[in-house]
């Protein structure tokens, strides 16, 4: 098809990238290995191509760092050079994710890796037929869909209200805000409810440490989680500034440690928080994924005071790609966040909202959950079995009674960065505990996504990698 | 059905609202009129009910301000009281929308008002059959959908890349980020690309003044727009801090003034911005809605340097409820914002993305646009005719050649707050120019949503209201 020699194809590709402004001045080009893979050539061919473009004055190598764009075809011929986008990003409000998290986000889309990382249901748990059926129903219900009022579709809010009643939570539809996932709910609370100088109390470890939810203006205090959940006594050794503190907690099938607080502990926590007027943001996204027995009631059920903002999601139970979750709380909070939402992105996809509404209203969601619980249990038990078989000498874990993960602690100190990378080299992706601010030698393993065969291969690879890094 | 006397029904309803924590302590309850409407009773019945709940110690009236919750059933019996959510919201990072904008957002969902406000296509322009057809196609294509990588569906990005080629823009799919509407793109740029202390240059008037996109850390400078678009000479009388300034511009069918910059002006602007290294954020969401002739090429087409970030959306051309738009720019910017997106809401609804992809790939989008252009033109001409007939003595306007609005300037100074409210009293919703920071007596009228009959009724009502407020 293409008669140009390979090295010239690469030269033209690079020139075009620079000419079109896709690679701006100051940016690093892909590595020689990446380019070689892209074109299916040897590295020497890539090096030849790079030398040509260098000789044109467009590229420059920096020792030990890589090849950078230093000019484009326009800047070579004029005094003009574009804004330095790389510099602009350096001092922005939103920090970058830590390198490991960026890498995980990228690698989680790779089909050739065994995904022991993904916090989502695998292809065999995706409700294909239910979704196709619901899509059919939705396509007959569609009316014109405009900008909403920020609260979300009323019928969906009614269905969520009904669904929450099964967990004992009485929330009116007008006290529910539809969000594009739990993370967005947390963001909205952070920018819309909390004061600039607030102190936020987070569990440690917590998946919240792997995303930058809280702006630099806020102080983060970490309260340890143990086998019984948040250490309440350590929380209340802290000082609280009235109306400028909040507790974020994930008390049911906690991510990543999988522990759940007992009902007794929940009661004590709520009572103390009421005493100190410390608002609770309860993240309860794993509740519907219990396997052995229903978990203790949400803290929100015990709350008669409007003390608790309650967050849920369909990302873990149906599919993340829906981008549908909810936030429930006092009307004053919901009204305020509705306005913030209208300044953020004008609400969630109406299509996704309708689909979820249909899944709830038809009972398909409940049926799907029953199926998910059965299969998740098999998957969990299989992964537990694999761990017992292969890693019981070197690690410990407890049996999760819900959620998607097993939290594994190594008995000896291990270089976790090295282990993480070694596993990737062997095509297995794991989540090292340090991204959740855990200082032990720990990993979070998912049993929800990989196939049974992949789980076995993954654990064997992990075992081998452990030997390689010790 | 319900045998309780009406006033007792209201008492129980209020008690429950307070008991469940939906009305938190410190919050204002709905007005007597609102409650009376809700229950279909006289105000005297509401007053009786309120007096009872007051006597229980739960409510208190504040002179001239309304009735407030001062206790709940728990706080009456204990020392505990909930966090003051109303106070918390007062010092948050995200300011509230101005009152008029909040009111418009709320009133735009009311079916009983004539909507001369809405910036979206009306029910007769909603592509029902195309969307139903595309839904059918999508339901057969659905695979499991997980957390993406933040960029959005590759097939959709390819389709957008092809679509942009028709406007002369050459952008690779890897330089496109899918967003949940243009507003989100602006937010992502603001928190992810701009420096904390940046100065942002905005058109004045601009719809951007009606949403709080920019954090308090940034300085906003307003550059006037006239019949030829942004006054370039006034922009370049400013001083620019290298790598800490950016220009946000909506050069095609500008919202709200509807003007478009000429190609010549675009060239001058880009050249000068290159000279000063001032990045351009080009908001081009109305481009596909031209009526008389294609508008001048996007500034992005002239950009060979990676100077311009380019924003588009399907909210104005298909439906806002999809929540699908895009951002195109240099790879470094797109990569950075992908990471910010993964810390914000993990991407846009996969369903919405698939649906838009299908509409684009099937050619249904192009066909739909042809239809939209024809009908919009009729609607625009009709509204122009109504204005000429009824308001030519008191106001002036120019004929828009694209977009959804006519920008009307009154010849005499008018109390715009009063006019806005008077129109609402008469069931007509208009957007007063002051929400866009216009200091003239101006309104933005939409011809895209209301029916022909409603437009006539709306203009007659506007005329009458003008007499009432003079």
UniProtKB/TrEMBL annotation, chains A, B:
InterPro entries: Aminotransferase_I/II_large, HTH_trans_reg/aminotransferase, PyrdxlP-dep_Trfase, PyrdxlP-dep_Trfase_major, PyrdxlP-dep_Trfase_small, Tscrpt_reg_HTH_GntR, WH-like_DNA-bd_sf, WH_DNA-bd_sf. Its cofactor is pyridoxal 5'-phosphate. Residues 4-72 form the HTH gntR-type domain. The keyword Transcription regulation applies. One of its GO terms (molecular function) is pyridoxal phosphate binding. Keywords: Aminotransferase, DNA-binding, Pyridoxal phosphate, Transcription, Transcription regulation, Transferase. Pfam families: Aminotran_1_2 (PF00155), GntR (PF00392). In the C-terminal section; belongs to the class-I pyridoxal-phosphate-dependent aminotransferase family. PANTHER family: HTH-TYPE TRANSCRIPTIONAL REGULATORY PROTEIN GABR (PTHR46577), TRANSCRIPTIONAL REGULATORY PROTEIN (PTHR46577:SF2). This is PLP-dependent aminotransferase family protein. It comes from Bacillus salipaludis. The lineage of its organism: Bacteria, Bacillati, Bacillota, Bacilli, Bacillales.
């Amino acid at each position: 098809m293409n008669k140009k020699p390979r090295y010239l194809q690469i030269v033209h590709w690079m020139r075009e990238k620079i000419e079109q402004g896709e690679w701006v001045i100051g940016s690093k080009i892909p590595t020689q290995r990446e380019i070689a893979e892209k074109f299916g050539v040897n590295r020497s061919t890539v090096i030849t191509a790079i030398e040509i473009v260098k000789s044109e004055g467009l590229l420059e190598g920096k020792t030990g760092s890589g090849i950078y764009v230093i000019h484009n075809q326009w800047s070579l011929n004029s005094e003009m050079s574009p804004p330095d986008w790389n510099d602009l990003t350096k001092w922005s409000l939103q920090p970058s994710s830590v390198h490991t998290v960026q890498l995980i986000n990228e690698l989680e889309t790779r089909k050739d890796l065994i995904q022991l990382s993904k916090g989502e249901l695998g292809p065999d748990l995706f409700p294909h037929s239910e979704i196709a059926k619901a899509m059919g129903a939705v396509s007959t219900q569609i009316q014109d869909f405009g900008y909403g009022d920020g609260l979300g579709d009323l019928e969906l809010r009614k269905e969520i209200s009904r669904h929450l009643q099964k967990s004992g939570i009485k929330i009116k539809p007008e006290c529910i805000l539809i969000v594009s996932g739990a993370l967005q709910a947390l963001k909205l609370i952070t920018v819309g409810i909390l004061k600039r100088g607030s102190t936020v109390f987070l569990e440690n470890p917590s998946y919240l440490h792997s995303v930058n939810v809280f702006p630099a203006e806020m102080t983060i205090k970490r309260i340890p989680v143990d086998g019984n959940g948040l250490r309440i006594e350590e929380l209340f050794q802290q000082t609280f500034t009235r109306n400028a503190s909040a507790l974020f907690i994930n008390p049911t099938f906690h991510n990543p440690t999988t522990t759940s607080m007992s009902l007794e502990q929940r009661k004590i926590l709520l009572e103390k928080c009421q005493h100190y007027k410390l608002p609770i943001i309860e993240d309860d996204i794993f509740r519907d994924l219990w396997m052995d027995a229903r978990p203790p009631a949400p803290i929100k059920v015990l709350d008669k005071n409007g003390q608790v903002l309650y967050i849920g999601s369909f990302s873990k139970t149906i599919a993340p790609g829906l981008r549908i979750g909810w936030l429930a709380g006092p009307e004053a909070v919901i009204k305020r966040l509705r306005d913030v939402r209208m300044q953020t992105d004008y609400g969630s996809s109406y299509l996704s909202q309708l689909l979820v509404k249909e899944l709830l209203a038809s009972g398909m969601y409940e049926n799907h959950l029953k199926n998910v619980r059965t299969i998740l249990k098999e998957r969990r038990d299989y992964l537990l079995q694999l761990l017992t078989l292969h890693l019981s000498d070197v690690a410990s874990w407890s049996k999760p009674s819900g959620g998607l993960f097993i939290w594994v602690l190594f008995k000896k100190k291990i270089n976790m960065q090295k282990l993480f990378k070694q596993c990737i080299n062997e095509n297995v992706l794991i989540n090292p505990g340090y991204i959740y601010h855990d200082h032990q030698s720990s990993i979070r393993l998912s049993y929800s996504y990989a196939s049974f065969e992949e789980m076995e291969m993954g654990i064997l690879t992990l075992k081998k990698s452990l030997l390689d890094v010790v």
